[in-house]
């Protein structure tokens, strides 16, 4: 394909098309392949080393053995939708109707896709934070809408009020949030989240809030689900997923909650994409959502400890490390090491000393911010042994 069709050209911000118009793989796949080939410690992609809780795994096995292997309902199995509603009320005090205000999706990625395809089109604008998760730009492009961004600035990666106001305007159809934020690890301050909601409400825009890291918030950072901000609930679709909370990234079980009318719009698109998903995994995820508070607390504490271990290791190697208040990720600026191109550094560090990361510019390909251009995203959802190994490799490399 030497000249891609127009719809494919629109997704170039996600790294799918190069300047010559040739379809190519993303740097995410390239770094992972290099890590495997060269035996690097892979702190690039965000998938855990450890397995799901035993109760969740056993529930999936039991469901398969019991014959739960055919099409589930399009909205998701009742047991899962009920568990999602109970989980939402238990942790956030948000009451949703499991029959009309909840839908199961094929992971959070499909939830984002069907939300955008059902709500936005040519002539509309979709606003995201920048840097942004790579699938956002691709799906905005496929919807036909125009992508606008609110840059995250400063050491703690927060949006500026003036730039919020400038980005969200009369053509804004959807504000696509991600909080806690991938790739930066930031948690958006409540007053800034309130400003985003107010601007969306002023222009009658829908908020799609990707909150897959809702349980991975550290240091008592003030995380608030977007739907709970005054004026937001009637216009907000909230997306979450079993992948991060229960370490089952391969199951692809996500969900969306929100007003019945918006959920119906999403369902109308979903039935022509994946239709349904993961029958035996749905009751297993329901079991996970009902685990005691201690499970969620222990996972958060464990990952916070790994974040600290990795951050200390990166500082010892000479990186300038940004605070990470949530997610699986920490951002480290390589400029103090004399590195001003993160894409080159990510490839070279994967080969020697053998530590894989993702350049921050992969999540903000049009940014000219020098910090974005020189920074790398590292994942700390690995074992402590793997993180310690990576830290020592980087420290030794920097000493050389």
Distance between the termini: 44 Å
CATH hierarchy, class of the largest domain: Alpha Beta
Principal-axes geometry comes out as: globular
CATH fold annotation of the largest domain: Aspartate Aminotransferase, domain 2
Query: Low-confidence stretches at least 5 residues in length (pLDDT < 50)?
Result: 5-25
Q: Cα-atom Rg, whole angstroms?
A: 21 Å
CATH superfamily of the largest domain: Type I PLP-dependent aspartate aminotransferase-like (Major domain)
The CATH architecture classification of the largest domain is: 3-Layer(aba) Sandwich
Q: Using DSSP, what is the number of strands?
A: 14
Portion in strands: 15-25%
What is the string of helix and strand elements?
Answer: HHEHHEHEHEEHEHEEHEHHHEEHEEHEH
Main sheet: strand order: 2-9-8-7-6-3-4-5
**Helix segment tally:** 15
Instruction: Report the sheet with the most strands, covering strand number, pairing sense and barrel closure.
Output: 8 strands, mixed
Q: Structural class given helices, strands, pairing? A: alpha/beta
Q: How many separate structural domains?
A: 2
**Average of the residue pLDDT scores:** 93
Pfam families: Aminotran_1_2 (PF00155)
Keywords: Aminotransferase, Pyridoxal phosphate, Transferase
InterPro entries: Aminotransferase_I/II_large, Kynurenine-oxoglutarate_AT, PyrdxlP-dep_Trfase, PyrdxlP-dep_Trfase_major, PyrdxlP-dep_Trfase_small
Family: Belongs to the class-I pyridoxal-phosphate-dependent aminotransferase family.
């Amino acid at each position: 394909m030497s000249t891609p069709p127009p719809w494919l050209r629109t997704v170039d911000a996600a790294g799918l098309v190069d300047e010559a118009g040739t379809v190519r793989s993303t740097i995410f796949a390239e770094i992972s392949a290099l890590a495997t080939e060269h035996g690097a410690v892979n702190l690039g992609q965000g998938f855990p080393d450890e397995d799901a809780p035993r109760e969740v795994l056993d529930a999936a096995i039991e469901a398969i053995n019991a014959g739960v292997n055919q099409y589930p309902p399009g909205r998701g199995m009742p047991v899962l939708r009920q568990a999602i509603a109970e989980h939402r009320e238990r942790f956030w005090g948000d009451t949703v109707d499991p029959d009309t205000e909840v839908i199961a999706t094929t992971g959070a990625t499909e939830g984002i896709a069907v939300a955008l395809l059902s709500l936005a089109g040519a002539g509309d604008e979709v606003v995201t934070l920048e840097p942004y998760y790579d699938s956002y730009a691709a799906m905005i492009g496929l919807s036909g809408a125009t992508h606008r961004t609110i840059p995250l600035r400063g050491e703690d990666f927060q949006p500026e009020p003036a730039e919020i106001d400038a980005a969200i305007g009369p053509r804004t159809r959807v504000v696509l949030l991600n909080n806690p934020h991938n790739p930066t690890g930031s948690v958006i301050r409540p007053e800034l989240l309130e400003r985003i909601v107010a601007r969306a409400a002023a222009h009658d825009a829908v908020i799609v809030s990707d909150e897959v890291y809702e349980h991975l918030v550290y240091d008592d950072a003030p995380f608030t689900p977007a739907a709970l901000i005054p004026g937001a609930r009637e216009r907000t679709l909230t997306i979450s997923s079993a992948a991060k909370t229960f370490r089952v990234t391969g199951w692809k079980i996500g969900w969306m909650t929100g007003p019945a009318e918006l959920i119906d719009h999403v369902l109308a698109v979903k039935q022509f994409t994946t239709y349904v998903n993961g029958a035996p995994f749905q009751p297993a995820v329901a079991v996970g959502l009902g685990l005691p508070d201690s499970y969620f607390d222990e996972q958060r504490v464990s990952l916070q400890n790994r974040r600290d271990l990795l951050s200390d290791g990166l500082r010892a190697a000479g990186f300038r490390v940004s605070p990470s208040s949530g997610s699986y990720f920490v951002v480290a600026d390589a400029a103090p090491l004399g590195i001003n191109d993160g894409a080159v550094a990510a490839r070279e560090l994967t080969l020697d000393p053998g530590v894989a990361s993702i350049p921050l510019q992969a999540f903000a390909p049009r940014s000219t911010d020098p910090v974005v251009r020189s920074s790398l995203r590292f994942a700390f959802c690995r074992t402590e042994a793997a993180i310690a190994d990576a830290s020592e490799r980087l420290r030794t490399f920097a000493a050389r």
